[in-house]
Model the fold of this input.
Amino acid sequence: MTPDHVIYIPMILIVGMFLGFILGARAARNQYDLERKREEERLAAKAEREKRRAEKKAASAATEAEASGETKAASDG
Done:
């Protein structure tokens, strides 16, 4: 084994660790951003469902009020 290996092997290990750190940090950041985006989409979808549910409930209540009003008018007349 030549003395060059004393420098070469540790340098290759350091370069590998550096590249692994950079690529791992990028992958972790991308995963975090993806999870945050999914959570925002879930919250937006949930808000939209709640909005539709409230509109449907209001429309149903209005229809019931009209129907009960017509029933009262028919029974009065």
